[in-house]
Amino acid sequence: MMRLPLFEFRAPRTVEEAARILDGEGPQTMPLAGGTDLLPNMKRRQQVPKTLMSLSRIGELHQTKLGDAGSRIGACTTLSEIAADPRLRNGLTALAQAASFVATPQIRNMATLGGNLCLDTRCNYYDQNYEWRKAIGFCLKKDGDICWVAPGSSKCMAVSSTDTAPALMALGARVRLVSRSGEREVHLSELYQNDGIHYMKRQPNELLTEVLLDSLHGWKSAYWKLRRRGSFDFPVLSVAAAARLSNKGIIEDARIVVGSVACLPLVAVEASNFLKGQPLNQDSIARAAALAARVAKPLDNTDFDMTWRKRVTAEFVTYALRELRGDDMRGERLLLRRHSSSC
Amino acid sequence: MKGQMAEQKEPRKPSRSEDSRPYGEALRIIGVPRRRVDGRAKVTGQTRFADDIFLPRMAHCKLLRSPHPHARIRKIDVSRALAHPGVYMVLTGKDLPIQYGILPVSQDEQALCLDHVRHVGDPIAAVIAREELTAFEALDLIDVDYEILPTISDPEEALATPQPRIHEYGEEGNIHKQVALEFGNVEQGFAEADEIFEDTFFYQGNTHLAIEQHASLAIKDPDGKLTIWSSTQTPHYLHRALAKVLEMPAAHIRVIATPNGGGFGGKSDPFNHEIVVAKAALALDRPVKICLTREEVFYCHRGRHPVLMKFKTGVRRDGTITGVHLQTLIDGGAYGSYGVASTYYAGALQTTTYHIPRYRYEGCRTFTNKPPCGPKRGHGTPQPRFGQEVQLDKIAEKLQIDPAELRLRIVEAPNTVTANFLRLGSVNLTECIRRVVKISDWKNKFRKLPEGRGVGIACSAYLTGAGLPIYWNKMPHSGVQLKFDRGGGVSIFCGATEIGQGSDDVLAGIVAEVLGIDPFDIRLFTGDTDLGPVDLGSYSSRVTLMAGNAAIQAAERGKALLAEAVALKLAIPKERLYFADKRVFDSTAPDNGVSFAEAICLAEARFGTIGTVGSYTPPKSPALYKGGGVGPSPTYSYSAAVVEVEVNPITGWVHVPKVWITHDIGRALNPTLARGQVEGSVYMGLGEALMEEQKFRRLPKRLSHALVHKFPSMLEYKSPTSLDMPEVVTELVEDPDPRGPFGAKEVGQGPLLPIMPAVANAVYDAVGVRIDEVPITPEKVMKALAEKKAGREPRFGPDHFPHVKWPEALRIPPPWEGGDGNAVNDVHREKPRATKEKVLAP
Fold it and tell me: What H or E segment, with its residue span, contains residue A72?
């Protein structure tokens, strides 16, 4: 079987202590939350940190406050907790749906929200064990100097594969980053960047401590995920949509985010702007779906054919918007290999 | 709680008070749904698989594998690895130079490659170290100097690239094996046809994906002998390979097949890692263990061959087949494995379901620089079965006959000898079709469901055990020994290997039935070459019939001894004795009798220690031509399936809500297990139909020679999860076949076969597009839908069959043309011919 490489282990009890460790030990130290992604990656030698710093003993990272005026969710809240929390409804539905679709029940019991937001980008040429990567001469993201997805590219094209980030971006979330020298709040849509290696603007000495949400009174949201099977799989296309509707059913504000088709989740700005002032009817949904699908430029580095992923994007945007409108979408969810959602 | 505890201790026993059936000929264990004898250990995690065994001083082994798809090894320097702290030993090809392989005609493997690597993952060196991590780290310290050779990635490239050769043997160039057989003049058959259909199909390769990765642990016994525990389906063949490669007397080697965490054909070859740990354990005098990673299991492979097929079929207006001509181009991967047999199998069973008066088969297997293909559940037959059943659906549509009705018209008769000289036993395919049509409400669904929803039907047949062993011999295929204990216990010794299919339970159930005892009173010693007589292994659906018949013989012989002693004691004729409820008694006066334990004591006092043996040898096949060794079986199972699908007309997404399947099993020995096998087959079939692919990635040729498995992981090799599994309605058609134990036929493989074509036919019924290849992915459905919309042929599938230079066909006149089972033009073959080693198969 595959074994973990040797590493040093730290387990601070406070955020301050964690920040000191990150600052003192440098980028060779990685925070360990649920470990559901990091530890398998280490077994495959994709990531070989000198030190793992466990976050499990830091009580404040597990604290969650949900309220009408806004919410704070601790970074170490597990995805199971989020998926099962009955307060995460209406405006926050997309988050609960996204969390419930991650991997498997066992993994969701360990995996955390912060971990999912920081999830390493994925690629068919990278998420392989050491021997396999050696057989292709490695790649840009680890140990090599070429991107096999786009051999002419100077940039790594690994794919953002987090389920919760598109959902939280659609909800306008911010995250708190704490370092030894201070802390800052960053809009989630500003956290990611278009580079498969440096996919986050989080500095190595910064710890993502919590997710912040403004009041979502009057909002509705939905998350749709494309994957081959009803469990296990990472998204290869995801659509998060959120909208605030007037009493008359006119959209006052909307955000559509398309995930898993680039190095970062993409806000479909044109589609979102178009929807403002529109009723949610067949025409507006079709137009918004076509606009949103334009931003998706999938490459051949995930499951499924990239052309097909591109072609079905509009259909998935349609599903999400129809769900916002109040259509009964359980049949469609069931067809996608029993994507039943408790939400 | 107390009740539950009591139930654990006292498993279900058929006692007279709770079972009102009268004594007589009725079966009391066979045919009754029972908890399997190894069930408790499995569900409580106490079954010890190979990787669960830990021994003192145990060392760990890791294999250095080739990063190149095709290369010569110029030089290997292991000195840095040997100097690494914690490393005990490094082995290379020169330590194990003798070639081996599962088939006598394909002894083309080496435990560690000497000078030629043939696929990414081919093992080159082994590091044995104190810790597994140390062994892994030391792999990088082995320096190998390679000379890169051109990469051959698929059969068409293999046909076009005779040099360099991947192997120095075979037909020519990179063609491993070619087969050409003609049973009757097929052109004449086409001349008699009203319609001729020609179709090409492609069946993508896929792998077994057993949950347990292969693991082996070897020790040198205190007396210098070798013992190896291994997750193998074929301990007897591993035993032979070890004796050959290690140059040791077979008598000094003990192979123990641990319970397999799934096999499906993936653990049927002798493997390099097994030979390596055996060699290392002998040299180091330490236990040496290896447990493969999931990636390494993908490199062992031996899974489904990718097959390109061309079917030409002539039919009369009423659907009667006048002739079939099948051509296959088979991607064998880098080694022979079972490939010669697979090539024959791809043509052998076409004749077993429907009457085909004239049949021509041409098959060609090529070597490519990929992990070797071999036997996976259905060995060689799912691919042509897919083509045949989809083509029948097209024929039915053209002739305007309901496809179920068409099949009913052409079902082959029982106890027939087919065009290619396979002798059929019971054939209840008609009943299977009728029942599946009924339970699925076929007549109200086919061509009647709304757009986007559809149903498809398909049928199949499969062997109940290969009629011939892998190496030529006249000995039994399975043997069973029974030991009778004075305490009333019975021990079964048999080489049969438990791979999850329930072979232990079959043996216990049969012996318990014959002797009138409880299966839980029996101890089983199976899969151990030292303890039990040879059983050839868990492949070709052979264990229930062959080990089962051997067990009946051994049990009946024991019963006869006991009966004689008890009859004397009770002073009644032994014919009046009845064995049931752990007693032996007068069937006319049930209170007059002795306990089973007492019966053993009486017999032991009279005859001495009581032990009996039984064995089974399949009947001789009438197929005497070269290649006729592949396909014969004592009898065949039959299946019919209806699959319902829902297809999204925009995305092409295929959803399967329900499957109905009927299976002609002869008799279900333990119906719980039999149904489990059917459902497991449906599950695996849906995986092959919809998503599973053993796919490879060729990097851009100008930049790299690399050819790698696209994604050798359980996450990205897509196999359905329990959430993707539809409702399955299973009906077992029971009509005991006298050739099987208590009438039983196979159930482990046959029910897989109709699923893939039934899905394809259902997709056509739903949205009117033909997907002539598997897996049927949404991308392909969407492309076919686009073709349909554009007014072109609504189809996705291969568009050509490449030119292959076929050898002259062996001409074998079918039985109805006076044939005697021999080819009329085989100049190389004398007849009769029985002593020389020939191509034989599982």
Answer: strand A70-74
Question: A313: Cβ–Cβ under 8 A, 6 or more apart, which residues?
Answer: A237, A239, A258, A261, A292, A293, A296
Q: Looking at the predicted structure, is the pLDDT value of residue B157 above 80?
A: yes
Residue closest to B271 by CA, chosen among B255, B250, B249, B252: B255
CB A141 within 8 A of CB B74: no
Contacts of B479 (CB under 8 A, 6+ apart): B494, B495, B532, B533, B534, B535, B550, B613, B614, B615, B616
pLDDT of residue B697 exceeding 80, the answer is: yes
Does B723 contact chain A (CB < 8 Å)? yes
Hey, which residues 615-674 in chain B have their CB within 8 Å of chain A?
646, 648, 650-653, 655
Taking each helix axis from N to C terminus, what angle separates A282-294 and A306-325, rounded to the nearest 10 degrees? 140
- Indicate the residue of A129, A315, A334 with minimum beta-carbon distance to B651: A315
Place of tokens 């654990």: B8
Is there a contact between B663 and B733 (Cβ–Cβ < 8 Å)?
yes
**Separation CA A210–CA A195 (nearest Å):** 24
| B736 φ, ψ (degrees, to nearest 5) | -50, 135
Name which of A325, A331, A263, A335 is nearest A299 in CA terms. A263
Which residues of A fall within a CB distance of 8 Å from B293? 1-2, 129
The ipTM (two decimal places) reads: 0.96
* Residues from A in contact with B at Cβ < 8 Å: 1-3, 5-6, 124, 127-129, 131-132, 134-137, 146, 148, 151, 228-233, 303-305, 307-308, 311-312, 315, 334-338
Question: Between A and B, how many residue pairs show a Cβ–Cβ distance under 8 A?
Answer: 97
End-to-end CA distance of chain B: give it in Å, rounded: 48
Tokens of B195: 């319609």
Mean pLDDT of B356-369: 98
C-alpha A268 chain-centroid distance? 16
Is the Cβ–Cβ distance between B401 and B457 less than 8 Å?
A: no
Type of residue at B212 = E
| Interchain CB contact of B120 with A (< 8 Å) | yes
- CA B192 – CA B195 distance, rounded (Å): 9
Does the pLDDT value for residue B181 go beyond 70?
yes
Q: Hey, what are B76's tokens? A: 């290997």
- How far apart CA B426 and CA B738 sit, in angstroms, is 9
Task: Give me the DSSP letters along B365-422.
Answer: EE--SSPPP---TTTT-HHHHHHHHHHHHHHHHHHT--HHHHHHHHBPPTT-B-TT--
> Does any CB of chain A come closer than 8 Å to the CB of residue B54?
no
Q: By C-alpha distance, which of B802, B799, B798, B826 is closest to B812?
A: B826
Measured CA to CA, the distance from residue B456 to residue A202 in angstroms comes to 54
CA–CA separation, B692 vs B685, rounded Å? Answer: 10
Tokens of A115: 């971990």
How many of the other CB atoms lie within 10 Å of CB of A175?
26
Percent of chain A clearing pLDDT 70 (strictly above)? 98
Above 80 in pLDDT, residue B842? no
User: How many Cα atoms occupy the beta-carbon half-sphere of B422 within 13 Å?
Assistant: 36
Q: Are B157 and B368 in contact (CB under 8 A)?
A: yes
Interchain pair A336, B704: CB under 8 A: no
Using the predicted structure, report yes or no on whether residue B2 has a pLDDT greater than 60.
no
- Please write the tens of the pLDDT for every residue from A189-216: 999 999 999 999 999 999 999 999 999 9
CA angle B36, B548, B636 (to 5 degrees): 105
Q: Can you spell out the DSSP letters for B171-189?
A: SBTTEEEEEEEEES-HHHH
How far apart (Å, rounded) are the C-alpha atoms in residues A131 and B140? 10
Sign of the four-CA dihedral B181, B184, B189, B191? positive
Residue B699 in 3-state DSSP? coil
